[in-house]
Amino acid sequence: MKRGAPLATPSNRTCGGCDKQYTHLPKWRFGRFCSSICHGRSLRKEKVCKQCGIAFLGSKRQRFCGKECAYKSHTTPNRICVVCGIEFAHKHTSGKTACCSRECGWKYNIGAIRAKSYGKFCFCEWRNCIHCQKPFLAKNEAKTACCSLPRVKPKRTCTDCGIEIGKFQYRCQVCAHLRKKARPKPKKKKTAAVIAGKKAYNRKRRATKRNVVCATVTMDAVVKAHGARCHICKKKIDLSLTSGMMMPSIDHVVPLAAGGWHDVINCKPAHFICNSKKSDSFAGQMMLVYEDTQGRG
């Protein structure tokens, strides 16, 4: 509407669908109809039902007058079974189904397959199994059962104690546990680095218990600081030995029991036998001092 134009006023009109008087508003969507129902009826046209041939009012896409005619158009007439000859209602539109039931279908398919190879319709008959009394399709006249008699399997027993056990077991849980305990455990080979690290940890733990100055001391650090000679017997130490009385060991010059520190300065290399003789006793310390003075003299 243009600016300044006079406002449209409502007017009384006659509906084109139901011939009733109604008040027409300026913004009425349905034009010359009083409601959406009358407007929808005006869009329908006269058509003929494709199933029953009766004339009816329908929309553009509507082909049938109702649901019954639409359902009838999708169903096919009754057929006759090719195996048993009984008439049956076929619901599907495709023309492939020729049998009334699954049993007749099996008979028909088996007969058709064998007829191709032998040139005749082979024997097919539904019988009850003499063992389980269930129906099955016999493919020859001699067959009377769908399954064989159930075989009774012997019960399993434990190979050690003879107790009855489960299906997939060889021994009972008690015998298996006892055998596992009796089995020798494989010993893991410790490398030189692992042995050295364990010894260093044990020395540090002993020093920590006595509340003395404690540091991480290894054999390599002691040999680097003091040389590869025993400070007790003054003989050379074979660092390649890992066992025996002459293997290398770390000796505390001032024993930990006497308040000595656990560091590189207080630790010196020594043979294992020399370190054991010296020990941390007063006699061992005096022997070391005596031998040291005799060697100097």
Structure overview:
The protein has 297 residues and is an alpha+beta fold. The chain folds into five domains: 33 residues, no CATH class; 30 residues, no CATH class; 73 residues, no CATH class; 29 residues, no CATH class; 87 residues, 2-Layer Sandwich (Herpes Virus-1). It is 31% helix and 13% strand. Strand 5 and strand 6 form a beta hairpin. The chain is elongated. It starts with 10 loop residues before the first strand and ends with a helix. About 2% of the residues have low confidence.
Secondary-structure map with pairings?
Elements (H helix, E strand, L loop, with lengths): L10 E4 L6 E4 L11 H8 L1 E4 L6 E4 L8 H8 L4 E2 L6 E2 L13 H17 L6 E4 L6 E4 L34 H10 L9 H18 L9 H8 L21 E5 L14 E5 H7 L3 H15 L1
Antiparallel strand pairs: 1-2, 3-4, 5-6, 7-8, 9-10
Rg for CA atoms: 55 Å
Tell me, rounded to a whole number, the average pLDDT. 76
For the largest sheet, list the strands in their spatial order: 1-2
| Major sheet size, sense and barrel closure | 2 strands, antiparallel
Low-confidence stretches: 117-121
CATH topology of the largest domain: Herpes Virus-1
Strand content: 5-15%
Number of helices: 8
- The CATH class of the largest domain: Alpha Beta
Q: In the CATH classification, which architecture of the largest domain applies?
A: 2-Layer Sandwich
> Number of domains in the coordinates?
5
Estimate percent helicity.
25-40%
The structural class is: alpha+beta
